[in-house]
Amino acid sequence: MAKVHIPTPLRQYADKQSAVTVGGTTVAEALTSLVSKHPDLKKHLYTDDGKLRAFVNVYVNDEDIRYLQKEGTGLKESDTISIVPSIAGGR
Amino acid sequence: MIKIAQPAYDSLRLHGEETYPHECCGVLLGRFEDDGSRLVSTAVRCANTHKESPQNRYQIDPHELVKIQREGRQRDEDIIGFYHSHPDHPARWSSTDLAEAHWFGCSYIITGVAKGNAGITNSFLLMGSEDTDKEFSEERIVLLKQGAAQ
């Protein structure tokens, strides 16, 4: 089981929880478990064709999964997943 | 409405002066109040990682956000907003600010910095739930004297 930390804007779709414990041995399985528990999260995390949205960053502990094995990144019991929407802008 | 501890407010405005003519940026840690307002205890400074055009663009390394979220949890606080500066430009949200905003229900504070001096600071609440319906709504800033935000 891994713990997924939910960012503040998405908690309304996860019964207002700040973290959800999910099953799965990879990030893909963990996120699938997450959206099966909280289906309203799905459209905020994934595009219509099932890809993670470009502004959604996913970290396992302190590592960006883009620099690991992406959604195929393996998980250990003690791992924590952080979902972090991007922050950018400017005049 | 957003309530901000005075030291946090002073810090985010000073940050804009220190990074001028580049945009500064940072994270607001605090709590969501029962009445729907946000209470900021700390403004956490971040590096502007937009290397191509830091004078009119900003971005925060998501790894910094992961670390700040962790710090917040240890203090029973959450990320409730962000701030950045507009060097030699009004403290109003831009089309870029809106296009890049994804933290619904959070505050985006902007300080106009003219010739290196912090001017007006405004706060905008990101409303809506997705890219197609999102909008910024200006909100009142209430400053709290030191200790009141604890």
- Number of contiguous helices of chain B: 3
Give the number of helices of chain A.
Answer: 2
The quaternary structure here is heterodimer
Element-by-element helix/strand order of chain B? EHEEEHEHEEEE
The helix content of chain A, as a percent range, equals 10-25%
Which structural category fits the helices and strands of chain B? alpha/beta
Strand element count of chain B:
9
Q: What is the terminal-to-terminal distance of chain B?
A: 18 Å
Uncertain segments of chain B are none
User: What does the largest sheet of chain B look like?
Assistant: 8 strands, mixed
**What integer is the average pLDDT of chain B?**
95
What summary fits the major beta sheet of chain A? 5 strands, mixed
Q: Strands of the biggest beta sheet of chain A: in what spatial order?
A: 2-1-5-3-4
